[in-house]
TrEMBL record:
UniProt-listed SUPFAM superfamilies: E set domains, Oxidoreductase molybdopterin-binding domain
UniProt keyword Transcription regulation, yes or no: no
Cofactor(s) this protein requires: Mo-molybdopterin
GO molecular function: heme binding; molybdenum ion binding; molybdopterin cofactor binding; sulfite oxidase activity
Database matches in Gene3D superfamilies: 2.60.40.650, Oxidoreductase, molybdopterin-binding domain (3.90.420.10)
Chain ranges of the Moybdenum cofactor oxidoreductase dimerisation domain: 239-353
Domain Oxidoreductase molybdopterin-binding: 45-218
InterPro entries per the UniProt record, alphabetical: Ig_E-set (IPR014756), MoCF_OxRdtse_dimer (IPR005066), Mopterin_OxRdtase_euk (IPR008335), OxRdtase_Mopterin-bd_dom (IPR000572), OxRdtase_Mopterin-bd_sf (IPR036374)
Gene Ontology BP annotations: sulfur compound metabolic process
Keyword Oxidoreductase among record annotations: yes
Protein name: Sulfite oxidase
Keywords tagged on the record: Metal-binding, Molybdenum, Oxidoreductase
Length: 355
C-alpha cells in the first residue's frame, strides 16, 4: 500500500456503490506491478455470495466424456501456472464518454493488476475430456440476484468460446500475489482470462459446463455487448479483448505545478500483442515525444512509463499519452461511442496549470 512518509496518510478505494460493492482503484497511487488487496478495484453485479468453502467442490459437466467434481486439494495438486495479468473492467473510463451513457461512471481506476496462480482450465479438461461438438464453456458463479430487466433470480454466468477456454493461459486461479484469493475477488476459485476485459474472469466459480451452442445469459447477450446505436441494437458486437489503452497517473488532472522539472508517469496495456511505445505530448497533441518504459513490456501485463518534463513557461498545458502495440494498433483520438459505454480507450488527456 502507498502511504505518505510525512503524514502517514493512506489512499483508499473510490466508492461508487456499496451493495453490490463497486469501488475503483485510486490509480494515481499505484506505482507497482501488483495492486494490493486494499487498493484492488471491486466490481460486482450482486451482493456477495454465501457458501461454505469447506464444502467446496467444483463440478465440470455437459459435453465431456466424464463429468467430475474436483476438491480444492485436488485442484491445488495439479500442475500450476503463475502469470501477471491486468484485470480491466469493460466499463473503465465510462465516465468520459460524450454523450454520457448510463451505468457506473467509472473514471480511470476500474483496473488493477497482480500475479495469479492457478491451474490451466485446459489441464482440468484433460481429466474430463471434451466432446467433438463442444463450442463454448460456461462458468457459473455463486452470486445471484434480480436484474433490473427481469423478475427472476439470475446467477452471474458467462461463457468462453472453446478455443479461448483451452488456451493454456486461461486459468482457474486460487492465489493472488502469493496468497489465497481474497474473498471479494473470487475465493476460492476464479477464472482469469488474460487479454479479455474482466467480465470474463468469473469469480466464485460454482460449476463449469461444456455446451454445443452459443450461451445466451444476460451478462453476455444483453450486457457486455457494444451497441453502436442509441435507439436500436443494430450493429451489436460482443465485448471481448481489451483495447489498447494508457492512463496518465501523475500529474493529476487540473493540478497546479510550479516551473521546473516534473515527471509525467503512467501505465499502458493492451489485449492484443504487447505495448511497444508510449508517446507523450505536452502541447495538446501538436508534438509528441517517446516516454521511457520503466520495464520491458510483457504480454498480459501493463507497462509503466515515465516522461521527464522541463517547463519554464507559465500557462495552461494539455498533456496527452498515446500507446502503440506490436500488431500495429494505437490508441485513437476518440473512443468509439456505444450505448452501454464499454471499451473507452481514447488518448488519455489531462490539463495542468504552471504558475
Ligand atoms: N461471479 C462474478 N464474477 C464476476 C463479476 C460478478 O459480478 N460476479 N463481475 C465481473 C466484472 S464485470 C469484473 S470487471 C471483474 C471484477 O473483478 P474484481 O471485483 O476482482 O476486481 O469480475 C468479473 N467477474
Ligand atoms: Mo466489469
Amino acid at each position: 500500500m502507498q502511504s505518505s512518509q510525512k503524514t502517514g496518510a493512506k489512499s483508499y478505494l473510490i466508492t461508487k456503490t456499496l451493495d453490490p460493492e463497486n469501488q475503483e482503484t485510486p490509480i494515481q497511487f499505484i506505482h507497482k506491478d501488483f495492486v494490493t488487496e486494499k487498493l484492488f478495484y471491486r466490481r460486482n453485479h450482486f451482493s456477495y455470495p454465501n457458501f461454505v468453502s469447506s464444502f467446496y467442490w467444483l463440478s465440470i459437466g455437459g459435453l465431456v466424456n466424464f463429468s467430475r467434481t474436483f476438491s480444492l486439494e485436488e485442484i491445488q495438486a495439479l500442475p500450476s501456472k503463475t502469470l501477471k495479468s491486468v484485470l480491466e473492467c469493460a466499463g473503465n473510463k465510462r465516465g468520459f464518454f460524450k454523450p454520457m451513457v448510463f451505468g457506473e461512471q467509472w473514471q480511470k481506476g476500474a483496473i488493477s493488476q497482480g500475479i495469479w496462480k492457478g491451474v490451466s482450465l485446459r489441464t482440468m479438461l484433460r481429466y474430463t475430456g471434451v466432446l467433438e461438438a463442444a463450442k463454448e464453456v460456461v462458468f457459473e458463479g455463486y452470486d445471484f440476484g434480480v436484474r433490473t430487466d427481469s423478475n427472476d433470480l439470475t446467477y452471474f454466468s458467462r461463457s468462453l468460446p472453446i478455443e479461448k477456454a483451452l488456451h493454456p493461459d486461461t486459468l482457474i486461479a486460487y492465489e493472488y500475489n502469493g496468497k489465497p484469493l481474497p474473498f471479494k475477488h473470487g475465493f476460492p476459485l476464479r477464472l482469469i482470462v488474460p487479454e479479455w476485459y474482466a467480465m470474463a474472469s468469473v469469480k466464485w466459480i460454482k460449476k463449469i459446463t461444456v455446451i454445443d451452442h452459443e450461451f445466451k445469459g444476460p451478462f453476455q447477450a444483453v450486457d457486455y455487448v457494444y451497441y453502436p446505436k442509441k435507439d436500436s441494437d443494430e450493429g451489436k458486437l460482443p465485448v471481448t479483448t481489451m483495447k489498447i489503452n494508457s492512463t496518465i497517473q501523475q500529474p493529476i488532472d487540473r493540478q497546479i505545478l510550479n516551473t521546473g522539472f516534473h515527471t509525467i508517469a503512467g501505465i499502458a496495456w493492451t489485449g492484443r500483442g504487447v505495448i511497444t511505445k508510449i508517446e507523450v505530448s505536452v502541447d495538446g497533441g501538436m508534438t509528441w515525444s517517446f516516454a521511457n518504459l520503466v520495464q520491458s513490456p510483457e504480454k498480459y501485463a501493463w507497462v509503466r512509463w515515465e516522461y521527464k518534463w522541463e517547463v519554464f513557461e507559465k500557462g495552461e498545458y494539455t498533456i496527452l499519452s498515446r500507446a502503440m502495440e506490436s500488431e500495429g494498433g494505437k490508441q485513437p483520438k476518440e473512443a468509439v461511442w456505444n450505448r452501454k459505454g464499454y471499451g473507452y480507450n481514447a488518448i488519455d488527456t489531462i490539463k495542468v496549470k504552471v504558475e
